Write the structure tokens for this entry.
Amino acid sequence: MPLIVISRGSERHGEEVAGKLALKLGYRSICRESILKELVDGESPRADLFRAADQGPLALDRMENGREKYLAYIRQALLDSLEKDNAVYHGFAAHAFLQGVSHAIRVRINPERDQEGSSAREAFKTLRQKKAEHLNWYRYLHGIDLADPIQYDLVLSMHTMTVEEAVDVLAEASRRPCFQPTRDSGNRMRMLCLAARVQSLLAEETPFVNVAVEDGDITLSTEGYWKQAMKVMDRVEQILGRNRSVGIKVRLKAPRN
């Protein structure tokens, strides 16, 4: 069955649609907040990192390699939670980690229009400010504009439909043949999860190595010299263990002056 990944332009509507949709389909409902809570709970350098991230980009930049580590950890946690399919996720930017997974339905939910009355306008102004902060945050993290509709399979505007209608639209979409898992999309998801685990384990020692999946192989992109790259490759082979049959490629960039 498909994955449904909802990017919330409206937090209230996104949560409500996701909950009712999961109930209707019998799927798991997963939110960004629950994933972050697991990462933040306890006392550890990783927990400190995520607490700093709550304060925004400047606080994250003050931590050593903060952005790179944050992305590695959140990527692994998110993909681990979605690996088994049959899930509705609601939060921000999950689709950035699911490139090439054809059975992941990428959805954007936009908020309803401004309402009349001074109190309603003030509430909408606050919502717009919060939305701008979220857009800036994810532009800083992923280099993407969450409001760009080209990133999504479906964009739903809550000023033209009810929550129930949005749930019906998404439930119908989940049954379409184009969104059903295939062998290729399942393998792609498995490889993305494996690459995310490798990236997370490398984050402390070599945070500037980018681990990606290309043509069924894990590709390491890094700056430096060949000898350094081979050390990283050896470390990745150790991490992969019984998955050593997975191909590993190295893309080496010249070090900066």
In short: The domain at 3-179 is CATH 3.40.50.300 (Rossmann fold). Residues 73 and 200 are 5 Å apart (CA to CA).
